[in-house]
Structures are given as C-alpha cells and as structure tokens.
Automatic annotation (TrEMBL):
The keyword Transmembrane applies. InterPro entries: FAM173A/B, SAM-dependent_MTases_sf. Keywords: Membrane, Methyltransferase, S-adenosyl-L-methionine, Transferase, Transmembrane, Transmembrane helix. It comes from the Bacteria. Coiled coil: none annotated. One of its GO terms (molecular function) is protein-lysine N-methyltransferase activity. The chain crosses the membrane at residues 63-80, 87-104. GO terms for biological process: methylation. This is Methyltransferase type 12. Signal peptide: none annotated.
Length: 257
C-alpha cells in the first residue's frame, strides 16, 4: 500500500534490483547459448531491458516500473558512451529524486492532467457551488492552479514531492485563495472541502475510498481522474476529450437517511 514506507519501500527496492539482476542473468544465459545473436553491447542492453521489464511484471511491480527497467541499462550505456562530466549524473539523480520523491517507497509518480481535464473539473466545481477544493497529489498544479482562478473558491494543493510542490507554490504566489501544502495527502483532513480531486493510481483507490468515506461531509463530491474506487457506484462519469480519453469518476457522499 502506498503510504506505508519502511518495509514496503524495501520490498519495492528489492523487487527492482531482483528484476534487473534476473534480466541480466537471463540475457547472459541467452548470450552464452547463442553468442552470434547477442554480440554488441547495445543488443545485449536491449535484451536485458526487455527481460528486466518482464521480470518486473512477473514480480507484480506497478506498471510505471516497466519503462524504468526497459531503459535502465541502455541509458547507462548511452551515458558512458557520451562521456559526460560526472557532476551531470549527480545533478540528474538529484532532480529525479526531487520530482519522484516517494516513488521508490510506493508513492504514485508524477504525470500530468491535461488542460481539458482542468476545464472539466472547473465546470463540475462551478455547478457544485463549492467553496473548498483539494487536489490530492497536485503535481505542478495542472488542475489546482486553473481552479484557483475562481477567487471565491479556496484551493488547497497537497503535494509531497519537493520540486513539483515548489512549482505549484510559485504558480500560486499571486493567488490569495490558493495554498500549496507540502505534506502527504494521507494527512489531509477531507472534511474541509466540498469537492476533492485526485489523479493517483489503481493501487491506492480502495484505501483512498475509505478515507473519503470517513472524512468527507455528506453531500460532498469526490472526483477521481482515470481510476475508479473499487465497488463504488459513481454518481456520474465524465468523458474528457483529451489525448488519453480521460474519464472522471464522480462520487457523491451520501446524506444520512
Ligand atoms: C499522477 S500525478 C497527478 C498530478 C496532478 N494532480 C495532475 O492531475 O496533474 C500524482 C502526484 O501525486 C503526488 N503524490 C503521490 N503520493 C503522494 C502523497 N502520499 N502525498 C502527496 N502527494 C503525493 C506525486 O508526487 C505526483 O505529483
């Protein structure tokens, strides 16, 4: 589960190393059996990438690990060939760590909603007449910042990764009704908001659904981009005309009978 650091983080790291090592072992075995097919570092690196990605899948790592495994060794070889200065590696690792802060521990990585999603969410919020809006895992503010153009709406953008948070905070600097909160979405009290938005991952939706049920006020609206809450009936599903054909799953919190 996403918010558990410690052991889960170690298991994730162990699986990542295991997928790479098993990919390497498989490639070495294939190269030993058929040297003619596998000569040249590039060919070996590509086969190792595919093998590592397949092992990652077999080890049930989240899907965003696949491109990482596919590209890890080919990228390492490309970097060595280019003979780049060593400080550039340090800078790259630092930047990646600041953007993908909790991903190794299981947090959802950064990927961005389109402008069309922000427009669709703004239209929903207008209809709701809500005065408080939260984006859980706000990234660089792709949804929170356009929403905060409505001065009557108080917008909180919750983001844990330092660099995306800094970008959101900078984008919110002239918007008195918007706040970028550098904290875990699991520490956010949803009772403060009439509408809550999240674009996360299937892996967290059941747990997030529990949090929504526990904390949101009756009559409030929870919008999940792309990923439904398992076993919940959405009040409606909005189809967004963007490249990903995003679906917004809208869940109404029941009023007591
Ligand atoms: C898929 S991106 C969505 C970004 C933005 N909401 C959008 O729609 O463009 C998910 C974001 O959630 C953030 N995130 C993941 N787990 C988090 C947590 N526990 N607390 C706060 N932010 C988190 C990630 O750093 C990432 O920026």
């Amino acid at each position: 589960m996403i918010k558990i650091a410690g052991t889960t983080g170690l298991i994730t790291l162990f699986k990542a190393f295991a997928a790479q090592a098993l990919g390497l072992a498989l490639t070495a075995t294939l190269a030993w059996m058929s040297p003619a097919l596998f000569h040249g570092a590039w060919r070996l690196a590509l086969v190792q990438g595919v093998a590592a990605a397949l092992w990652s899948n077999a080890l049930r790592q989240p899907y965003w690990w696949l491109p990482i495994h596919l590209l890890f060794l080919p990228t390492a070889i490309a970097m060595l060939t280019l003979q780049l200065p060593s400080w550039l590696y340090l800078l790259t690792v630092l930047l990646l760590a600041l953007v993908f802060w909790g991903t190794v521990k299981g947090d959802v990585p950064l990927f961005l909603s389109s402008n069309a999603v922000a427009d669709a969410v703004a239209a929903i919020v207008d209809r709701e007449n809500a005065n408080g809006f939260a984006d859980l895992g706000a990234g660089i503010g792709s949804v929170a910042v356009p929403l905060a153009q409505h001065p009557a709406l108080k917008v909180d953008a919750w983001e844990r990764a330092p660099l995306p948070w800094l970008i959101t905070a900078w984008r919110c600097r002239t918007l008195p009704n918007a706040a970028a909160k550098r904290a875990s979405l699991w520490d956010c009290n949803l009772a403060h908001y009439g509408v809550v938005f999240a674009f996360l991952s299937p892996a967290v939706m059941a747990e997030l659904g529990e949090k929504v049920r526990r904390e949101m006020r009756p009559g409030g609206l929870f919008i999940s981009s792309s990923f439904p809450i398992p076993d919940w009936e959405p009040e409606k599903i909005v189809d967004v005309e963007d490249r990903r054909r995003t679906k917004l799953f809208c869940y109404r919190l029941c009023r007591p009978e």
